[in-house]
Amino acid sequence: MRITVQSDPFDMGAESNAFAKTAQGAGAIVTFTGITRDSANADLDVMEIEHYPGMTERALTTIAEQAMQRWQLADCLIIHRYGRLAPNDPIMMVATASRHRADAFAAAEYLMDYLKSRAPFWKKEITKSGTDWVAARAEDEAALKRW
């Protein structure tokens, strides 16, 4: 299990390959990478992501441990960036490995839903028309109810 909170960009392919090499006994590996998307008006300059070091890593470790216990996982990975990100920059990645695909898919979705709604990150969009903090979305909160 590896949890990384970093400002530097990451290489999705390299991270996936490295994860696959360490996933002993796995028959399935699921990866997901979230990309910083532009606003509906296509005027996003940058997204600034803030977090509290230490607290963030502890929270992500807790949810990864819960996923490892809930599903038959051989391994899991969470990478999440902070700082200034441009549109189309990779913002986060999860990877799960298990003997069977159902556990790998379910655990990956669980981690993604948690990261979207409960992980202690604060996002601010800086656009051509101003600055706004990103608010929680009802559909993201609703996704957590299935777990």
Oligomer: single chain
Total helical segments: 4
Mean pLDDT: 93
CATH superfamily: Molybdopterin biosynthesis MoaE subunit
Low-confidence stretches: none
Tell me the domain tally.
1
Q: Which word captures the global form?
A: globular
Q: Which structural class do the helices and strands define? A: alpha+beta
Strand tally, please? 8
Order of helices and strands: EHEEHEEEHEEH
What distance separates the N and C termini? Answer: 21 Å
Give the topology, please.
Elements: E1 2-6, H1 12-22, E2 28-35, E3 44-51, H2 55-70, E4 73-81, E5 83-85, E6 90-98, H3 101-117, E7 121-127, E8 130-133, H4 138-144
Parallel strand pairs: 1-4
Antiparallel strand pairs: 2-6, 3-5, 3-7, 4-6, 7-8
In brief:
The protein is an alpha+beta fold and 147 residues long.
Describe the model.
This protein has 147 residues and is an alpha+beta fold. The protein has a single domain (2-144), classed as Alpha-Beta Complex (Aldehyde Oxidoreductase, domain 3), CATH 3.90.1170. 35% of the residues lie in helices and 36% in strands. The protein contains 4 helices and 8 strands. It has helices at 12-22, 55-70, 101-117, 138-144, and strands at residues 2-6, 28-35, 44-51, 73-81, 83-85, 90-98, 121-127, 130-133. The strands form 2 sheets. It has a 4-stranded mixed beta sheet with strand order 1-4-6-2, with helices on both faces. Helix 2 packs antiparallel against helix 3 and helix 3 (101-117) crosses helix 4 (138-144). The longest helix is centred in the last third of the chain and has 17 residues, at 101-117. The two termini are 21 Å apart. The mean pLDDT is 93.
